[in-house]
Amino acid sequence: MKVPFLDLKAHHAPIREELDAAIAEVVDCGAFAGGPYVAAFEKDFAAYCGTQYAVGVGNGTDALWFALLAIGVGAGDEVITVPSTFMATAEAISFTGAKPVFVDISPDTYTMDPALLERAITPRTKAIVPVHLFGQVADMDPILAIAKKHNIPVLEDACQAHGAQYKGKRAGNLGVAGAFSFYPGKNLGALGEAGGTTTNDAGLAKQMQVLRDHGQQAKYHHSHIGWNGRMDGIQGAVLRVKLKGLEKGNAARREHARQYAELLGDCAEVVLPKEASYGKHVYHVYAIRVKNRDAVLKAMTDLGISCGIHYPVPVHLTGAYASLGFGRGSFPVAEKCADEFLSLPMFPELTREQIAFVAQVLKDVIRKVK
Ligand SMILES: *Cc1c(COP(=O)(O)O)cnc(C)c1O
User: Fold this and answer.
1) Which residues sit with their C-beta closer than 6 Å to ligand 1?
2) Residues of the chain below pLDDT 50
3) Which residue ranges form the domains of the chain, and what is each CATH number?
4) Which among 93, 137, 181 is the best mutation to test ligand 1's pocket, defined by most ligand atoms within 8 Å of the CB?
5) Got the DSSP string for 182-239?
6) What would the pLDDT profile of 57-110 be if each residue is shown by its tens digit?
């Protein structure tokens, strides 16, 4: 049996006609860049997240960048985030002219450790960006309390957490704004590149709308230096169709996680992901931790099971950020996790037989590489 890491073909097959019809509608009316289909998706996505506004943009990196710019982050500022994330979180900070400042993660949730946050705050700190890694929301209450004490806005990197919850509220509705990616493999994915922000702040929403459209308040009246960060009309129409299946997909992922945990629970060599009691994990990535990770990964691949590593190098140790001067030992939890993380196949259409096979092969492999 072969088990893919992700199967977008299977995901799209049952909604293929609806997707084709949605695309044809945009082609017929020609609303390709922004426009009514993006606006309709923004309305639906804001309602889903429970926020007043959503702003459709080109990708998740744009979403983070525009949100930071709208908050007022710029040259000379510092923005606090975590080293255990996709590169884009730090890149968006750097492209405002600010410097990323890292806080290590909690070994239980793999998200920002609130106990380490306050000591990272300086007079230059202009924003805090917790990352809801793998589909689990960071522990927002203590983070928001510290942020409030220092009057610093919190932007959620919710690029992996569409529909995830914290104490009954959805990701994207917890900080001043949330940034989402609709990259094809995300829990809510476009048929191409797309992203979006959420907020309850009318001023921030307006600012992000202006930034994504060349700083225009009205056509050819440029009040700000903006950028071209609009969402495609076709992606807006596609995402509107796919949003209807997000809850079902997330429920399937949670059920798969339950089955993995049941099958691997007796394997002492595997550290399973933990769902924090405060929330609802949506398992964008099902990352376990194992010793000899690289050998386990290779053996799994050789036996037909596609796994991944998210992410092999924590951001502070990448060549891109060498100038920050961090060495090994700077953020020990993030570094240990990066050495041990192994992402098992996880997507809604995964079958019980496939999960059982993955678990069995993993146990065999671990016994052999020990
Ligand atoms: C995917 C992702 C991004 C970037 O999104 P793109 O749409 O690829 O630009 C940012 N942060 C995290 C945590 C992500 O997983």
Assistant:
1) 59-61, 85-86, 88-89, 131, 157, 159-160, 181, 183, 195
2) none
3) 8-103+110-243 (3.40.640.10), 246-369 (3.90.1150.10)
4) 181
5) --TTSSS--SS--EEEEES-HHHHHHHHHHTBTTEEETTEESS---B-BPBHHHHHHH
6) 999 999 999 999 999 999 999 999 999 999 999 999 999 999 999 999 999 999
